[in-house]
Amino acid sequence: MRLISSKRELIFPLAIFTVLIVIVFVLWNNSLDTLKSNYVSEIQNTGSLRAKEFFSLVKYDIKSLENLKHRIEMTNGSYFDYWERDAGLILEQNPSFRFVEWLDSSMIIKKVTPLEGNKAAVGLDLTKHPRHPEWRKHARDSTTNITPWTKLHQGGSAFLVDAPVYFNGTFKGSVTAGMDFTVPFDELVADLDKYAIQVEDENGTIFYSKNNPRTSEIGKEFIFTTTFEVDALDGQKWRFSLMPSHLNFMAERKQSTYIYLAFGLLLSFLTSSLIYFYRSSRKKNKDLNDTNLKLKDLNTSLKTEQLRAEKASKSKTEFISNMSHEIRTPLNAIIGFIEVLRLSEIQSSLQEYLSLMDISSKKLLLLVNDILEIDKIESGKTTFRKDIFSPLEELKNIISIYRRTAEEKGLYIDLNQTGQSHVEAVGDIGKYGQIITNILRNSLKFTEKGGITISYKEIVVDNELSIAITIKDSGIGIPKDKLKTIFDRFTQVEAGKAKRHEGSGLGLYITYKLVELLGGKIDVTSQESVGTEFHLSLKFPISDGSSTIKNTGQESIDLSGCNVLIVDDNRVNVMVLKKTLENLGVHSDSVSNGVEAIEAVKRNDYHLVFMDIHMPKMDGLRATKEIRKFNRTIGIIGLSADVTKEAIDEAKGVGMNDYFTKPISFDKLRKHLPGYLFKIS
């Protein structure tokens, strides 16, 4: 029967896991399609810009030759006296020119600059050359002629560009240049290593290529192609093509999507695991309640049943502790790496994804914390600290935190205070802040326009501070049939598939229980489409100390030169903590167990030790005991995903100065480290 029951408990989490996996793969596949589409668009845009640059350069160089022609025509041929100088300037200023020559009206080469290397062409009669008809046609039309890529009489290949010259009403010949655009084209694409380029003339001859273009091996959608008309009279067009320079061009771009896929799969697994563990925990709670009922009926077996109940309670505590550790440990790595990436130099397009990952991870952590809080409340293990604080100042701090969220939604948060102010009381500031935060977050979630008004009143009566807080919003309101159940666990105003607001339905239940444990009262009034009003009343003993609030201000923190030892067998946790400390300027070493930690502290002068609790060979508790035998001054901070009071008390009992629960935030380290490293200036 137990096996069948266990299988039934797995069905729902497995179904959730399957659905989440399908969603993750659909989103991942869509991201790949978007990535491909963006890359194709990038190629098209880059190709269009580069093609314009190429063809503009060709026009500019041909224009230089035509300017020489115009100078000869304007001077009726007298400009021939300056031929050598002008031709030399063109060759010097335009690296695409190999030579400039003069063909007379009978198509005989009369002059060539430079003469060296081209002497064989002087006096050459081109009337029998295949390009003679084309040359004559352009001479009659008085337009510039451009040949295909042509082998030269004096060796090599080039484009022959003829500019017909007329003066005194007679055709005199043509200024002709041999042009090779390789050098200026190379200068244009010197920074374009990730793309390959080729340019062909009208006959399909490739006269320029860069980065080994492979058009036959790359899909057509990744090749940009355009044409450029170089000779309108003959209809000659050159073809320009741009494509990726290597065949695995999409691999690097896909790499980031695999990270998001892995994160999505991990998040799906953690979510379904959390559901399974929670459902298992609820079943254990039900079994425990059934056992307690049986104890009342079975007086003859009271002792046996009592021992069984204690064993079940211990099992449940160990289960919650273990699940907390197993879920928080990977969350520590996830949230830690997110903070490290957000503080690093990374593409702006990825920052948005990191923000979404950060929000999702913290929502999952919040859900874990809520479930653990419920377990402590319902098992009677909730404890309260005795902090000295000002309830009004703490309320203002919480409002300042959520004011930005409200403003982003176009909402306001106003505070009205009456009576005495800044009176310090004795109580658990964390539990007080949790109550206010849960109510304020609930109001922000269900308010779309208008805002939130908070009224605060405090009165001193018989050495007790009595406070009354009203939080009123202009949100959607609560239906009458749900108003009585608003503080029940897993109860939400919206239900079903069409709900617009996220939430587990645990926040107000925890709030109600904490207020009850503090001896206060909380109730709610609401009207649909008008808003909701929460009324909270609490009492705290007044502090014997000064009632003035210390202004801590922002101190300049210099942690450079500090030396820290990290003791953890989890490589990922070590990487996250090392990188976080590095961002604070702190040097750190690491070892993987308690035995190595003891030797490291003996050998080196560390300012602080981060000690993981669960490790092989020697755990953190035993290692701390051993270190305290020979070093009583070094600061030791325990690290664990176990958030139970028993674990914290045990850690401090063996000599740890403090106990940080995973995940550890960058802000938490920055706030607490100066007190242990003694480097505040």
UniProtKB/TrEMBL annotation:
<dbReference type="InterPro" id="IPR003594">
    <property type="entry name" value="HATPase_dom"/>
</dbReference>
<keyword id="KW-0812">Transmembrane</keyword>
<dbReference type="InterPro" id="IPR003661">
    <property type="entry name" value="HisK_dim/P_dom"/>
</dbReference>
<dbReference type="Pfam" id="PF00072">
    <property type="entry name" value="Response_reg"/>
</dbReference>
<dbReference type="InterPro" id="IPR036890">
    <property type="entry name" value="HATPase_C_sf"/>
</dbReference>
<dbReference type="InterPro" id="IPR004358">
    <property type="entry name" value="Sig_transdc_His_kin-like_C"/>
</dbReference>
<dbReference type="InterPro" id="IPR036097">
    <property type="entry name" value="HisK_dim/P_sf"/>
</dbReference>
<keyword id="KW-0472">Membrane</keyword>
<feature type="domain" description="Response regulatory">
    <location>
        <begin position="563"/>
        <end position="677"/>
    </location>
</feature>
<dbReference type="InterPro" id="IPR001789">
    <property type="entry name" value="Sig_transdc_resp-reg_receiver"/>
</dbReference>
<keyword id="KW-0808">Transferase</keyword>
<dbReference type="Pfam" id="PF00512">
    <property type="entry name" value="HisKA"/>
</dbReference>
<protein>
    <recommendedName>
        <fullName>histidine kinase</fullName>
        <ecNumber>2.7.13.3</ecNumber>
    </recommendedName>
</protein>
<dbReference type="Pfam" id="PF02518">
    <property type="entry name" value="HATPase_c"/>
</dbReference>
<feature type="domain" description="Histidine kinase">
    <location>
        <begin position="322"/>
        <end position="542"/>
    </location>
</feature>
<dbReference type="InterPro" id="IPR005467">
    <property type="entry name" value="His_kinase_dom"/>
</dbReference>
<feature type="transmembrane region" description="Helical">
    <location>
        <begin position="258"/>
        <end position="278"/>
    </location>
</feature>
<dbReference type="InterPro" id="IPR006189">
    <property type="entry name" value="CHASE_dom"/>
</dbReference>
<dbReference type="InterPro" id="IPR011006">
    <property type="entry name" value="CheY-like_superfamily"/>
</dbReference>
<feature type="transmembrane region" description="Helical">
    <location>
        <begin position="10"/>
        <end position="28"/>
    </location>
</feature>
<keyword id="KW-0418">Kinase</keyword>
<keyword id="KW-1133">Transmembrane helix</keyword>
<keyword id="KW-0597">Phosphoprotein</keyword>
<feature type="modified residue" description="4-aspartylphosphate">
    <location>
        <position position="612"/>
    </location>
</feature>
